[in-house]
Amino acid sequence: MPTDATDRLLLGPGPSNVHADVLAALARPTIGHLDPAFLSLLDGVQGALRRVFRSGDDALVLPLSATGSAGMEACLVNLLEPGDTAVVGVQGVFGERMCAIVERCGARAVRVEAEMGRILEPSRVRAEIERSRPRVVALVHAETSTGVAQPVEEIARAAREAGALMVLDCVTSLSGMDVRFDDWCIDAAYSGTQKCLACPPGLSPVAFGPRALERLRSRERPVQSWYLDLGLIGAYFGEQRVYHHTAPINMIYALDAALRRVLDEGLEARFARHREAHLHLVQGLEALGFEMQVAPRERLPMLNAVIPPVDDEAALRRRLLGEHGIEVGGGLGKLAGRIWRIGLMGENARREVVDRLLGALRSLL
Amino acid sequence: MPTDATDRLLLGPGPSNVHADVLAALARPTIGHLDPAFLSLLDGVQGALRRVFRSGDDALVLPLSATGSAGMEACLVNLLEPGDTAVVGVQGVFGERMCAIVERCGARAVRVEAEMGRILEPSRVRAEIERSRPRVVALVHAETSTGVAQPVEEIARAAREAGALMVLDCVTSLSGMDVRFDDWCIDAAYSGTQKCLACPPGLSPVAFGPRALERLRSRERPVQSWYLDLGLIGAYFGEQRVYHHTAPINMIYALDAALRRVLDEGLEARFARHREAHLHLVQGLEALGFEMQVAPRERLPMLNAVIPPVDDEAALRRRLLGEHGIEVGGGLGKLAGRIWRIGLMGENARREVVDRLLGALRSLL
Predict the structure, then answer these.
(1) Which of B:282-321 have CB within 8 Å of A?
(2) SS3 letters for A108-173?
(3) pTM to 2 decimals?
């Protein structure tokens, strides 16, 4: 790999930059997945994740040995059986992906769609829950393809009242904005390590609450994925330490170090830092002629969907990367070629990082 | 993690020790999964894996973003549909796991079983293939639970003659003994990074040959796993670089460095090194009163199933780890409490490593 590529400022939709302490942890010598020293580290990681998800001791919380998309699949395949119904909020690419996975489970996806770049009105989702009486309601908290922050709590409460299980995608939101697993009545949630947690990509933290665990026990058929079967995986993370697959040791070292940084900073302070960096970015971009795609009250702090003031957005992105070493994301799906996605995640949610981007843009425009 | 745990000698069934160069690569700054510098590194990794699998340019070869068990699931879910039949060779835990996954695909697993610690007679598998006319034949090359080296080529040829697709588990064998994807008529194979490749756990190299890719295109239903759908994953690894999920960047840096070490040494030299270390180990262990579980001609070089000359094998393993920092594996499944599994994989397949283990055992017995 060319050495100049090691100095990237990663302001796309993830991965974000990883702190030197986390990289150093990643490179510690590998040890065995049944070594008492490793198991004790793993206990610590589970406890830290529980605090970040704000979930109770009765939840099964663990890092899945795959990326965030596998976390999405794990939540859906463990809770759904053929013939079940899931109400899915679709505000962008990741809601679409949920529908595709629901259907691969042999279940029926009932879509509630938002206009592109807008939130889903909770009342519409509530009405659909009451009409469909689904097994599962699935929602993306921070839709990375559009930059919209979806209100969750009202929908999750409606799901619980209807006896449905609430699945929440927190891939982009976790540790960058408030996520309250217990208080909001979430039953299953998943995230990724490469966004606000500021760890390399490769693991998917998941949380399964008591109602989701009860659903696991009462299934009629085995989970269609052996690798993502949380009943089997949970036995390794439980007292018995039953071998399921070899845990990705070094990635878990890195997650341990990344979670320490998150908890040392404090969740509220971290959320505030993400909000402040976001506001500073919006002000600077608007001064340069960029338009924000999302209305102020519906914006994510860590993922900014913006319309660049140029005809050829791809050329400008290439120059930003080639001449300034700064990566920003292009649009995904229907928004390809139209918007940029600027991530301020984890270590990068800082005024000086925003200033570096604004300075580079000023010199290129 | 206690610092003394960082000095483990990993002589279990994997992970094996990782060279400092590979750990250093792992800790390089994370960059984006669509960054041209990363995509070029990924091309190199795919080329190197092709050489290690000895597969042609018409195969799709890539590192899956999950561990070896996900590679097993990927091969089976991509090739099987409900109602299909798979003939599965069962010589231990990993053959059993294949049957479980076949059944979770809604397919029928026809088992051909070997006596524990023995190979499957190719003629018996051939007869079952001719009787069942399956869609898939699945076999474990190096059964890590028993230490048996399964002859592959005759069975793979029988599968091809019968129009079946041959799936081979090379988790423990790849780069430690001969694996010939094309010459042996393998259609799909998978491995893990944490065995003879001497990379941390977390990725599963897979190879899909042209007949397996044709099967993917002619499926009637979508693959039940979205995350492991090789049609979707292949689009990211192809010319188009279509986003599927965020690749585990740092783990791929490490795999790149580990594969360079493999190819710099040369496959034949590496196989010979594994054989020599194995013979040295057997001689030393027999002198200490250990019994080998497997007949000489059926033994794996990198995974030695041995019966320790003590009543309480677990106590001896604990002392080996606690007093000497050496990890060996216990038995799995039916062999728990009865055998040890001593791995000499990758960096550890060396006479001086064997001598360190023998010295420690001598002092404890």
Answers:
(1) 321
(2) EEEEEECCCCCCCCHHHHHHHHHHHCCCEEEEECEECCCCEECCCHHHHHHHHHCCCEEEEECCCC
(3) 0.97
